[in-house]
Amino acid sequence: MPEQEKLRLRNVSHVYVNDSGASLAVESLDLTIAQGEFVSLVGPSGCGKTTVLHLIAGLLQPTRGEVNMDGKRVTGPSTAVGYMLQQDYLFPWRSIGDNAAIGLEINGKLNAASRQRVGRLLEELELGGTAQRYPHELSGGMRQRVALARTLATEPDIMLLDEPFSALDMHIKLQLEDLVWSTIRGRGQTAVLVTHDLAEAAAMSDRIIVLGRNPGRIRLDLDVPDSLRAILPMEARRHPAFQPLFEQLWAQLDGDTVDVNGNGEESVEGGIRHEDEN
Amino acid sequence: MKMKISGATNDSASQWLQSLFAKHKARSRRITAAVLLVRMAILVFFVGLWEQAGRSKWIDPLLFSYPSRIVNLIADMVRDGSIWPHVGMTAGETALGFVLGTALGTLIAALLWWFPFVSRVLDPYLVVLNSMPKVALGPIFIVALGPGFMSIVVTTLSVTVIITTLNIYNQFREVEGGFVKVVRLFGASRLQTFRYVIIPASFPVIISTLKVNVGLSWVGVIVGEFLVAKLGLGYLIIYGFQVFNFTLVLSSLVIIALVATVMYQLVAMLERRLTGGRRER
Fold it and tell me: Is residue B280 a part of any domain in this protein?
């Protein structure tokens, strides 16, 4: 694969500061992601996975270091980056079509042609005929597909996936993994998936990065075997190469999960949320 | 297994379900009818008791009047048309009060949301203003604005604006952070965040605040009219009190109850209209 650099985090540290103190969430992180690569970030909760994603999206500015996209420094959110959240957060007062088009509307790019493209996108994601309906009429899996359509509508180069499958039932989650994977592959997008599900990371990615906890540092940077990269996540889960990979990841995290005490993690997460609400 | 269920079994199953449903419907109809009956009985009993007590002088009819006198007086005032200017004036002041109060409160809440610094500065002032009985400011408004329409409306606003501001500002702050994140990730400005997320997410609360303000506005208007008016239902109450015509006082109260109920129902209808499509929330 020609390694054309898409994203580069250079010596990035991030500190959350609030009234109860300052806490280091990510420390001296160096990371390069190539164009078209599908990278997963896994690690115990509180290891700063979501912070890394926020930094790439431009929602947060690194306290130290810099984040570059296509060689340019990221200074704020842009439509070049699509972000899928853990929950769908569809606006209940907007129809499905209007929900999917919100990004275009905010950027003043909503017109007859782009609206038609959103319509086609919904059909591609098996949501044809739902454009006039409202979120509460749809199932959880359908809603998360609308969220995917909303993210894709602005045609981003980079997809950031922040545990987008974790709130779903198992079989819907597996179907959606396949759908998201093929959509991203089909568009040649670069993707960063944050997950605590090792099997999900192993089934979907080209490369898996294991972060250690408190503060986030890279503990392992692992290339997924070619045999697994080429096939759908659902098939990858049944492939002979899958189990060894899973066990390798498990072994990495096992040491960490033993000394997990939920408290330290909560304070970091709380800090993130606090930051967002302002 | 399912494939083996015969048509006959299916039919008897659906008959069974239908009979259960029919029983449920009959039962809920019976309860509805009983509720209506008891409601009417209470009304008839108390009105009848009041009438009997007044006529038989168990209570002083000069002070407490009785229903037939009140009905006659209202009928007379409706017939000669003398009641309408009073009703119109009071209803107008009230409507202006709750619409303006809600609008102004929402506007101030928007400013507080926009400028968090201002919100922190003003916090204790809002708490004090909210705690004090605003109608007590009535005399100050009369001195400042003259004894008339303006001071009545401002008295009404003083009752509604602060509580509206606090309620709606709290709602603004409680809007789910995820919704805000969605639009920020698309590069939304603060104004766009307000327009696309904060306002629509708070809309049901704004409308229900409008409903609460209907009740509060009546308090403001009646007190305002007690103080200065030459026209209006509050004025009729004070006038009746001064000339010792308690039938007039009670008639005014009955009319206030009727008009206030109609107004509340209209706003409740408006609320259902405007928020009908969002049953989920």
Answer: no
Considering only CB atoms, which chain B residues are within 8 Å of A106?
183, 186-188, 192, 196
- Domain containing B53 equals 2-59
Contacts of A244 (CB under 8 A, 6+ apart): none
Q: How far is it, in rounded angstroms, from Cα B147 to Cα B151?
A: 6
The answer as to whether B138 is a domain residue is yes
What is the domain count for chain B?
2
Cα gap B174→B281, rounded to integer Å: 14
How much is the ipTM here? Answer: 0.84
What digits encode the pLDDT tens for the residues A227-244? 999 899 999 999 999 999
Among B173, B179, B187, the residue with its CB nearest the CB of A78 is: B187
Q: What is the CATH number of the domain that holds A172?
A: 3.40.50.300
Tokens of A32: 């390069």
> Could you tell me if B35 and B135 lie in one domain?
no
Query: What's the rounded Cα separation, in Å, for the pair B237 and A264?
Result: 66
Which residues of chain A are under the pLDDT cut of 50?
Answer: 1, 257-278
The DSSP line for A8-31 is: EEEEEEEEEEETTEEEEEEEEEEE
